[in-house]
């Protein structure tokens, strides 16, 4: 596969990272699985999605040019279908979480500082805002406006829908990470700290390792 | 009993969560809202009485207030669950609702479906730099490029990507590109024939 340039922004400094299409796909698969198994919405990897979509368009173009009846065509087309499934499925999973936790993700996004990676792409944010607005209108028209004056807001109910961060996840460790606090110090039990070694697999509560998922030190499986 | 009507709404919705969406229970909602109005008026009366110096009314005010909150929660849960169901149908049926489904929705819910449809279309158009991606395609991981399908209704002519034209007649079987006939399968025009070994 051809080499592609990827523009990766980190900390404001623009730095070019050259990745092959195969590496991009690998990264995207990882992001896809993480998104699939994490209870909350993760930072979107739209750079990977855009890059892969460009690749797909190029591959499809090549396929159209190719000679009919060549065996390689069907192999390539199968590959294109598979990649497109991963991209679609990834975006679908994200959209599902945005729909479910609309109020929560919008609030979380607002708390982020300007130099941090955004949680959602522009299109997703736009979708979320519109979705929330329509839902509020719907609730208002059918029920809330007929309720007593002190109960006409649904903010509390809408914000109450939040991901279950304490659910357990399977994970594989990619980088050695020492001193991970798994359990806070409480009256009944002492605090629990473990070292994660590369290649290990664990079942852990999601919340303590959430930051490691976003940084790529562990992958959910 | 307080808040019983509201619970009935939730139960009703819970029963059809896996199946088809039932008719919108406008009457049920109206009854809950009436109960809420009555509770609220009573509470207001008791509150002014308490302010005027009467003692011993606090617990009943508290109870009514809890019932009010519960009623609100149940009504919103009922509405929300229906909205989720309707959103799901956009993915199953495409942008046009079948008449028998539409019959069960209230006016605002039809409105919601149209809004959702527009939101989703806008979102899908904005994906990537090259004019978007249809997320309602590729719903299942592809196992093979071509699949065997059987026609369930007379559909007429269908042009494949290579420019060949085939006639989809009832009970005829074809070997087609999966990506081409996925939406026809979802609409119930074609049926995927799975060979059981």
Q: What is the strand tally of chain B? A: 5
Major sheet attributes of chain B: 3 strands, antiparallel
- How far apart, in Å, are the first and last alpha carbons of chain B? 57 Å
Helicity level of chain B, as a percent range?
40-55%
H and E string of chain B: HHHHHEEEEHE
Assembly annotation: heterodimer
Describe this structure in words.
The complex is a heterodimer of chains A (221) and B (197). Chain A contains seven helices and seven strands, in the order ββααααααββββαβ. With 221 residues, chain A is of the alpha+beta class. Chain A folds into three domains: 1-100, Up-down Bundle (Methane Monooxygenase Hydroxylase, Chain G, domain 1); 101-162, Methane Monooxygenase Hydroxylase, Chain G, domain 1; 164-221, 3-Layer(aba) Sandwich (Ribosomal Protein L9, domain 1), CATH 3.40.5. In chain A, a hairpin with an 8-residue loop joins β4 and β5 (192-196). Chain B has helices at 4-15, 26-51, 58-93, 99-102, 107-125, 178-186; strands at 146-151, 156-159, 165-168, 173-177, 190-192. Chain B has six helices and five strands; from the N terminus they run αααααββββαβ. In chain B, a hairpin with a 5-residue loop joins β2 and β3 (165-168). In chain B, the strands form two sheets. In chain B, strands 4-1-5 form a three-stranded antiparallel beta sheet, with helices on one face. At the A-B interface, α2, α3 and α5 of A face α2, α3 and α5 of B. Chain B: Residues 48-127 form the GINS subunit domain. Chain B: Residues 143-194 form the DNA replication complex GINS protein PSF1 C-terminal domain.
Supply the key terms.
heterodimer; A: alpha+beta; Methane Monooxygenase Hydroxylase, Chain G, domain 1; Ribosomal Protein L9, domain 1; 3 domains; two-stranded antiparallel sheet; 7 strands; 51% helix; disordered N terminus; B: mainly alpha; 2 domains; 6 helices; 11% strand; GINS_Sld5 (chain A)
SSE inventory with pairings:
The complex is a heterodimer of chains A (about 220) and B (about 200).
Chain A: E1 3-10, E2 13-20, H1 21-37, H2 46-65, H3 71-100, H4 102-111, H5 122-142, H6 155-159, E3 168-173, E4 177-183, E5 192-196, E6 201-205, H7 206-215, E7 218-220
Antiparallel strand pairs in A: 1-2, 3-6, 3-7, 4-5
Helix pairs in contact in A: 1-2, 1-3, 2-3, 4-5
Chain B: H1 4-15, H2 26-51, H3 58-93, H4 99-102, H5 107-125, E1 146-151, E2 156-159, E3 165-168, E4 173-177, H6 178-186, E5 190-192
